[in-house]
Design brief:
By secondary structure, the protein is mainly α. Helix content is 65%, strand content 0%.
């Protein structure tokens, strides 16, 4: 079966492949839940950072890796 690249969220495709058994090898299949959890953790951390910016507790220019000057 030829692998066709798809556009969109990598996590959505990984989740779909995990659910349908479409992953290429067992190692990827075993790592998929950990990968998905790691991505969700990063999203949660970013949302907390956005919350701090909206409350005024953090400078939006500094939290995004950009510095003034």
């Amino acid at each position: 079966m030829e692998h066709t690249p798809r556009l969109g969220s990598p996590m959505a495709h990984l989740d779909d492949e995990l659910a349908t058994g479409g992953l290429d090898d067992q190692k990827r299949e075993l790592q998929a839940p950990l990968t998905i959890s790691a991505i969700l953790d990063l999203v949660e951390l970013r949302l907390h950072q956005v919350e701090r910016v909206l409350r005024g507790a953090e400078d939006p220019l500094c939290c995004c890796g950009r510095r003034r000057g």
